[in-house]
Write a sequence for this structure.
């Protein structure tokens, strides 16, 4: 059996994202897969995979399910996200125990008392942040990761969003029977992360890993469609135009090191057809436009089709 058929046959028994994440790429997976480098499409083998804007990792987990990845390096600037991945990597059983307790308590309650429990945990989660030690693993990581997963599964729209003070501020979600603890998936993720380097920090820290035979997927925070767009705040740090410029410099530098890079971003021409920000930054690389559904108003309730852009450094380079 080829690796491709192994992946396809087992795809439901292999790891999938454990969080719903703003800007998650589930809907773009086929588009991204169609644009993988030819050698990866043919062999179904990736020597080294790097994803420095990991979020919920929709593409990472898809590749894990369907390709043989020898080594992965995954990075995000969000410290709470990273301790959650590391907790699954090192202490899945303790995390599952915490989540099962939260789930049992939550599901045993009436709607009004569920709501009270949600806001109590949200408050504890926000208070905990002030003196939290993100550098050394402790049992507190397990507690915080279980709070994060609980809030992600029970909050409104499943969106992980912070206000300007860095507090998680999403209201209660009112789902009938949310699955707070998917122990099976956590154990599969745990297994699949054993060959993975997980790092907290700015995307630029992966530079030293970018060598030949490396495939990099870049999915930075969107340039906001308009000034009120929700997609500005994945964390309290905003990703500014200066960061987009730094990223294009990283793209060009890493290309020189021989690695293959695929990048997705929002298309500012959705709003302003004369905005050539990305055309200027990625001059010489083909910019493809693809359709995606996005939230398009300020309270995140109205959805519509918008273009996203896809850039790579291996086909269609002008
Ligand atoms: C569009 S989301 C990625 C979504 C992801 N592809 C998925 O499928 O869920 C962008 C991510 O970049 C992270 N981020 C923001 N600024 C960053 C930076 N300077 N370096 C690394 N990660 C950053 C955010 O925390 C967020 O998780």
């Amino acid at each position: 059996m080829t690796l491709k058929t192994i992946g396809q046959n087992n795809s439901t028994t292999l790891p999938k994202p454990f969080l719903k994440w703003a800007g998650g790429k589930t809907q773009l997976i086929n588009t991204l897969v169609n644009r993988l480098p030819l050698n990866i499409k043919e062999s179904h083998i990736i020597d080294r995979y790097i994803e420095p804007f990991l979020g919920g990792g929709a593409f990472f987990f898809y590749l894990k399910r369907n390709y043989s990845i020898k080594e992965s390096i995954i990075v995000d600037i969000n410290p709470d996200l990273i301790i959650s991945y590391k907790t699954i990597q090192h202490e899945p059983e303790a995390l599952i125990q915490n989540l099962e307790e939260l789930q049992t308590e939550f599901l045993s309650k009436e709607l009004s008392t569920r709501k009270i429990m949600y806001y109590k945990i949200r408050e504890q989660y926000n208070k905990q942040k002030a003196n939290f030690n993100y550098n050394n693993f402790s049992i507190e990581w397990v507690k915080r990761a279980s709070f994060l997963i609980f809030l992600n599964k029970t909050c409104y729209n499943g969106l992980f969003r912070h206000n300007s003070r860095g507090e998680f501020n999403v209201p209660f979600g009112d789902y009938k029977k949310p699955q707070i603890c998917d122990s099976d998936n956590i154990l599969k993720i745990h297994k699949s992360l054993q060959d993975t380097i997980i790092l907290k920090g700015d995307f630029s820290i992966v530079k030293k890993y970018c060598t030949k035979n490396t495939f990099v997927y870049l999915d930075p925070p969107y340039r906001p469609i308009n000034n009120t767009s929700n997609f500005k705040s994945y964390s309290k740090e905003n990703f500014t135009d200066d960061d987009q410029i730094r990223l294009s410099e990283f793209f060009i530098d890493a290309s020189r090191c021989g690695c293959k890079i695929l990048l997705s971003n929002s298309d500012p021409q959705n709003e302003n057809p004369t905005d050539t920000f990305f055309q200027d930054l990625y001059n010489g690389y083909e910019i493809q436009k693809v359709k995606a559904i996005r939230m398009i108003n300020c309270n995140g309730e109205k959805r519509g089709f918008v273009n996203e852009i896809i850039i790579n450094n291996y086909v269609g380079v002008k």
